[in-house]
Amino acid sequence: MREISLHILDIAENGIAAAADLIKIKISESRLKNLLEITVSDNGKGIAPELIKKVTDPFFTTRTTRRVGLGLSLFKEAAKRCSGEFNINSREGEGTRVSASFVLDHIDLAPIGDLAGSITCLIMGNPGVDFVYTHEYNQRSFTIDTRDIKRELDGVSINRPEVLRYIVDMIKVSIQELKED
Amino acid sequence: MGKLTIEDLKRLREDTRKKTVLREGGATVNITVHMGTCGIAAGAREVMDVLLEELSQTDRQDIHVMNSGCMGMCSSEPNVTVEVKGQEPIIYQHVDKNRMRQIFKRHVLKGEIQTDFALARIQ
To answer: N or C end: fewer C-beta atoms under 10 angstroms in chain A?
Structure first.
């Protein structure tokens, strides 16, 4: 994957495939700790204990359409390559939590990329799923919760193009403000 | 660009609601962007960006876009399935930004199947 934001999109799509209706994405960038931490958690059907150790094996998948499963293994490798850590915890019937950390100034760290694009893409393609996106940068943070947006929209669909463009702009401005001195 | 506020969202809701009342109805075109790891790595998010641009430029509200997982045809990703109501779904392969624009303008809006990029017709 050429961007970290594409990993986030991919891992969140796993949660949606596991029938989750709430996906929480947390990104934490700390210049002080020199660390980028990413957590994606969902309330999907979870992973059976006997399968949890196999999910980062690229030659393991529960799918029948193909024989490889690369999403989690690529994310794990990206973290390891950047002297970071990777964890996955899951409980059947409760959901799954995937977290990865990366050394921020590591030479092999891919750009974070278009986060606004990834989050909007998830909302656009899965209007029935709710997303909570929290971004921390040093001591500051912001959160976007589609449940709040849907409440304000009061019946107007969240995947209308006008609304999605609003969300893209909102995320871009919020990230920009977060990183301003 | 200033920070967008909750007031902007309310204004957006009212504007959208006015338009929606005029054209109520179900989907007549379903566009599915396959977003497995293979699709995402091959450029499926950029395809979604184009769809958002194109949808913004049309007032058609009967066109629905959704994501789904990998179909198992990883080598032809990004794959996009276009299903016009009453017709067989068409799967397009190696869809990039330009192909997606062409598929939207010709197939989705005018009903002309773009056979050059078509992988299969689901029967």
So the answer is: C
